[in-house]
Design a protein that fits this description.
alpha+beta; 2 domains; 6 helices; 12% strand
Length: 161
């Protein structure tokens, strides 16, 4: 069913968008609050590229060492690509997911065998249990989460959901 490669991580997806000229790198300092959101929304409304802000400026005025990536799924094509599908395959994938959610009763061995691809796909989505993972490593000091460039709500949206 998949026609595009499965992207194992965000870096692979970003490399793919860059190969299609759908990644815009913004090297200039941009304030995380207000400025970045304005740029992002303008690009989103225009169906623009993925944006990578290389020098986000935090609220205190310092630059973050962590870049910010926005508008990953701003177009139908990138949403489909994130699923490993061509845009015209998304409706069929939706029907497949709906069939997984509420399957019809099996009507014999032939019907059961015809559903094997669906069962195999459902079984492959199970989480993989590992005994040691990178997330389980011990960190000596508590991380400074205030150093992360997180976009905050503007004054117009503060307090609203």
């Amino acid at each position: 069913m998949r026609t595009l490669p499965v992207f194992p991580d965000l870096r692979a997806f970003l490399d793919w968008t860059e190969s299609r000229n759908e990644l815009a790198r913004i090297p200039d300092p941009v304030a995380v609050r207000h400025e970045m959101t304005a740029v992002q929304l303008a690009s989103l409304r225009a169906g623009g590229p993925v944006l990578r802000f290389d020098a986000p400026v935090l609220d205190g005025g310092s630059r973050s060492a962590v870049p910010v990536v926005t508008n990953l799924f701003a177009t139908r094509e990138r949403v489909a690509a994130g699923l490993g599908l061509a845009p015209d395959q998304v409706p069929g994938f939706g029907a497949f997911l709906a069939a997984l959610r509420s399957p019809a009763p099996v009507e014999g061995m032939r019907d059961a065998l015809s559903r094997w691809p669906m069962l195999r796909a459902a079984l492959s989505t199970r989480p993989r249990i590992v005994s040691r993972a990178a997330a389980q490593q011990q960190v000596e000091a508590a991380p400074d989460l205030s150093a992360l460039p997180v976009q905050g709500p503007g004054r117009a949206t503060r307090g609203r959901c």
